[in-house]
Design brief:
Length: 423
């Protein structure tokens, strides 16, 4: 085996090592999905408990906490061992450190809820921050993956998990209003924003997900549950203030829980699909290494195509080709070396294709970050809701014949200039 052949094998082993680390990260995604689901249920039960002044869901809340603690132990064990697989990913490790602090604060939050020392809205915000940190771990995993197929799968599952979390926040918001018997203007506005944001997440999921994943998502949607939720949404979001039957709080909770449980089934399917994808790629890479002897044998019978020496000669002036000498020409034209060069050229083309696919996916992620940042600036400076800011950007981009990402960059650049002048 010559050095070039050994280098190709070393490269393949490095690829396998990276894929195995990525598979470990993908297993973490599954654990995060299950833990978030438990936290979402705990958050919903806690909201009913707080909004009813401990008159409802006391036992159910304790059941949810027990489930969360089981999932929490699994996630802590996974996070504790992750640094050895993500030692070069500083951003991901920082995310995990923040999540760890939030996990340590959970016990205090639960005590405050038990003693009614915290409002339902404040408790929701605390749960939201922890869940948001866990989702950020998934996002960072998607943003740093080196395989385009795995990246697309991670992007799809991240946006589905984000949409499910927004559905969980909608459940929490609705639980507060229905249990209290009325929705004030801020909670009605929040409900509308959450409904719209969910749809955008699920649209992005559909863009990146596999056909099988999209079909599975459609199968899980219950029209009866959806209709029931829509009717309650309409009652909650009516402009005129009205008193609501407090029993609707439990009806709302049950319907939205059924919907979120169905989403959890989709998440489980997506996590399984992601794990299978990683392990298929690992098996293929291992098979490629094990097939080197067969490659050597096939090289002996390879049909001579065009002269590699002639290909190299095209790179030089005519007179310079004579300097190659017969020995060099013979070495370059040998079947083994020529086949290895062909193999490396083929691999280079494949890697370039992978790089292009990966860059396209990451470009989508970068553009999303720009749009979210610009939208936040508009919301802050123009006192707009998230939906109003998004519509403002969309109209501005259409009026100026720019993409949403270009419009977002213009807004961010302008804001930076104005801040420098004020300073």
């Amino acid at each position: 085996m010559n050095p070039a052949h050994r280098l190709l094998q070393a490269a393949k082993r490095s690829e396998i090592d990276n894929l195995q680390h990525l598979a470990t990260t993908c297993e973490l995604v599954g654990d995060i999905s299950r833990f978030i689901h438990a936290l979402q249920k705990e958050r919903g039960a806690s909201n009913v408990f707080l909004a009813s002044h401990a008159q409802r869901f006391a036992k159910r809340r304790l059941e949810r906490i027990a489930d969360s603690l089981t999932r929490e132990r699994a996630i802590r064990e996974r996070l504790d061992h992750l640094p050895q697989y993500a030692a070069s990913n500083a951003r991901l490790l920082k995310r995990i450190a923040c999540v760890w602090v939030a996990l340590d604060d959970l016990a205090g939050l639960r005590r405050d809820i038990e003693s009614l020392a915290i409002s339902a809205d404040a408790a929701t915000r605390t749960y939201n921050r922890l869940i948001g940190g866990l989702l950020a771990v998934v996002f960072d995993a998607a943003d740093t993956a080196d395989d385009p197929d795995v990246t697309r799968s991670l992007v799809a599952i991240f946006h589905f998990m984000q949409g499910k979390e927004l559905a969980g926040q909608e459940r929490a918001c609705g639980a507060i209003g229905f249990t209290a018997g009325e929705f004030d203007a801020p909670h009605r506005q929040l409900l509308l924003q959450l409904i719209d944001a969910q749809q955008r997440c699920f649209d992005t999921f559909s863009e990146f997900a596999s056909d099988a994943a999209r079909e599975y998502w459609q199968q899980q949607l219950s029209l009866r549950t959806q209709d029931g939720i829509q009717q309650l949404r309409e009652r909650a979001c009516t402009d005129a203030a009205q008193q609501l039957d407090r029993d609707l709080g439990e009806t709302w909770y049950e319907l939205t829980t059924a919907r979120i449980d169905a989403m959890q089934q989709v998440e489980a399917q997506l996590a399984a699909e992601l794990s299978q994808l990683c392990h298929r790629k690992i098996e293929q890479a291992q098979a490629d290494i094990n097939d080197q002897q067969q490659l050597d044998a096939s090289l002996q019978d390879a049909i001579k195509h065009c002269s590699t020496c002639e290909q190299l000669a095209d790179l030089f002036p005519q007179e310079a080709t004579h300097e190659l000498g017969q020995l060099t020409a013979n070495a370059v034209e040998s079947r083994l070396n020529r086949a290895l060069i062909d193999l490396m050229q083929s691999q280079n083309a494949r890697l370039q294709h992978i790089s292009d696919e990966l860059e396209n996916t990451r470009k989508t992620l970068r553009e999303r970050k720009l749009i979210d940042r610009a939208k936040g600036m508009i919301m802050e400076h123009q006192q707009m809701s998230e939906e109003e800011a998004y519509r403002f950007m969309r109209k501005a981009s259409m009026d100026q014949s720019k993409s949403m990402a270009e419009m977002a960059k213009t807004i961010i650049d302008l804001a930076d200039i104005l801040q420098k002048r004020q300073a």
